[in-house]
Specification:
alpha+beta, HIT family, subunit A, five-stranded antiparallel beta sheet, about 30% helix, HIT-like, catalytic activity
């Protein structure tokens, strides 16, 4: 397997590491959306969200939380604006924007005027009937999965 994130986790490829423990590694993205764009990865290869063991997945979120707090306190700024917000994002699958075949949690420092926008105010509202039908489909799928 030729996985750049596995290579980084094994210290075979360079990275600007900000955090490491037995399960996870956090390092700066080489294509940052904003200053302080950090990627949190499981050290063991996992192609997508469903491949990460639940304990590791929860640990990744706790590491992301810690990195987020550090970003707010770091003094990083963009056009003299300090980090005032955080986005956590995990893209699962190419259609969702996953560009590296190793699961990773994006921790994005957000700054006033940074140009990155997740808002969708122009999207139409779903009707209660449509929401009910979709909720039922999801509940049926959840009932066939192992419990949390």
């Amino acid at each position: 397997m030729n996985c750049i994130f596995c290579s980084i986790a094994k210290k075979e490829s360079p990275a600007a590491v900000v955090y490491e423990d037995e399960q996870c590694l956090a390092f700066l993205s080489i294509q940052p959306i904003t200053p302080g764009h950090v990627l949190v990865i499981p050290k063991a290869h996992a192609s997508g969200l469903g491949d990460i063991p639940p304990q590791t997945c929860g640990h990744m979120m706790r590491v992301g939380q810690r990195v987020a707090a550090a970003l707010r306190e770091s003094g990083l700024s963009l056009n003299e604006h300090p980090c005032e917000g955080i986005n956590l994002l995990l893209c699962d699958g190419a259609v969702a924007g996953q560009t590296v075949g190793h699961a990773h949690l994006h921790v994005l420092a957000r700054f006033v005027g940074d140009g990155f926008n997740l808002g969708h105010a122009d999207l139409p509202l779903a009707t209660p009937q449509v929401l009910g039908e979709r909720a039922e489909q999801i509940r049926r799928a959840l009932s066939s999965l192992p419990p949390v």
